[in-house]
Design brief:
With 222 residues, this protein is α/β, with parallel strands linked by helices. Helix content is 51%, strand content 12%.
Length: 222
Amino acid sequence: MRILLADDHAMVRDGLVPFLERLQPGAQVVEAGTFPEAQTAVRAHADIGLVILDLYMPGMNGLNGLAQLRAEFPALPIVILSGSTKPEDALQAIEHGASGFVPKTMRGETILGVLRLVLSGEKYIPPFLFDYRDTVTQPAAAAPQPGSPLSGLTPRERDILEMIVDGAPNKVIARELNLQEVTVKAHLRNMFRKLDVANRTEAARIALLAGVVGRKGAMQKA
């Protein structure tokens, strides 16, 4: 399999190529420094199985480059690589058809894990995007009292916490909330960080102390 790495900074490409060559046995990396070069390379190599595009390289014109490649090669996994960690950039990239959004600050080994996830058919959404997406898409919910350990949670994280109190595993949470399991795990990581806990049991204990009864308990009271 060939991997196209398109970035206008040679130092970035030099740093990533050794990692990308480990993605699969026999993987070869094709490099490009502008979007037109990347587009030409994809057209020239029928065995390119993954494209990595720098968000701000010459010729991208915002996300127009991504949209053009997605229209021409609808089945090709395309990952956006960027020095930006703006939630708006990540959200727009995903909405324009990117299979993932990878900040350049991410460690090489972590990038490999993300790319393997993408090649398996999944989308990768960076954790920092979840809070932003919940804020702009979820309806306002009754907020915990100021000073509550739950006050920093998003509405979606509150939903998941209620199901943790009920003892629901990730698979059930994903099904009930119409999410992928990888998305649930990302929400859990964010939640554990905000609550300063290490696992589900500790999170459930904090929730119970804060008065969260879980969905089953709420239905029994109704």
